[in-house]
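Now for one specimen:
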Amino acid sequence: MSGFVPVKVVVAGEEVTIRSEQPAEHSRAVASHVDDCIRRIQEQSPMVDGGKAALLAALQIADELFRTRSDAEFGSGRLEQTMEEIRRMLPPAKRSIGR
């Protein structure tokens, strides 16, 4: 897709327009995730104002991202290790396949 696609979404009761190269459905899903995080924080702590709830939601989402990246890196490392173990079991002529 070329260019930026404007999409109107509502986050924390505020209508905003997001301009993204991603499909509109993706932008709506991202906005919905942020809105859900803010809403959960406000439900758990009604005394937290909107700005602080948004900040806490941003920290929570960043934590999700960091954990996901860490899990992916671990999985990639484990995959490489398994592939190397399998290569050692192959006849020497076939060990370079996939490298």
In short: Residues 5-94 form one domain. The chain has two helices and two strands. The chain has a mean pLDDT of 91. The beta strands are 5-11, 14-20.
